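Write out the 3D structure for:
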Amino acid sequence: MNRRIDQLRSALDAQQLDGMFIVQPENRRYISGFTGTSGYVVITADKAFFITDFRYVDQAREQCVGYEIVNQGNALLPTLADLLKRQHVKRLGFEQDFVTYGDVQRYKTLEEVVPGLSLVPTSGVLELLRIIKDDSEVASIQRAADIADAAFTHILGYLRPGLSEKEVALELETFMRKQGASGPSFETIVASGWRSSLPHGVASDKVLESGDFVKMDYGAFYEGYCSDITRTVVLGKPSDKQREVYNVVLEAQRLALEAAKAGMTGQELDAVARSYIAGKGYGEAFGHSLGHGIGLQIHEGPRVSSSGSDLLKPQMVITIEPGIYLSQWGGVRIEDDVLLLEGGEKRIFTHSPKQELISVG
């Protein structure tokens, strides 16, 4: 964690901040290693503090290497005020996007009791560090992807008409937990038949029927990191229209995967798949972004969209997930997770079969 703390201190120095107060759970875990649910981080120019209550003190001592562990007792603010006084902090950054108005009002009382203290709202400081993955993060994402791939193989032998979407989602999630996942990385999407036209159609009571598309978008959490995969299959023999739509999405994804490289913008990558789908007459049916970053959160930077000005850099992990959604008929999405590397190289984390529309049953 020392490297991450050093990087954060450099970012704080650039903004003329004496310290940073961190509350957002993923940011807290990234900078401290703490996996519990209650705690606060304060980073100054030469010290790192983890503040928590009695329940988590021992856990923090074990996980937060290089931190001074502070037991807040019955109240956070007096403990925090004392710490800031001792450290002579004058400009303290806080995460403006993750505190409520009420929180800000409470924290503002610190300015009344800590001489010369100013609370400074910041945005994206830690997120810009998190966007570049180190080797340990890459390894965790790969394991999460391996679990998702294994779940797809498993579910192909489970799918059949008569099951509900919720039963399929439960089977996916149960299998992933048995493989070592701490849980699904987001609410599992299983959308069949006409419901597959809903881009985020989470599993419902709808029963799978012969001839249905079954679109499954799911992922695993492993050591705090996410995977995110989508595969679309058909129950029984596919129609010509189903094959056509599937193959358009498949080719759009292939083109985008081939084009993806560090040095281009998210907008440029998005255009590769979007222009192909539009050229096949389905432009209006592809209404979401091509992809997004993943890591400790299922949606994080960079943006891979028609408005994504973010420059893609080595060691970023993104999804590539074009889709076509035809209202009341059905839809297809195909998604894989990709690590961008130096020199235009890349590594694809997910490997579940997709090269033709899979017919189940």
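The chain has eleven helices and 20 strands.
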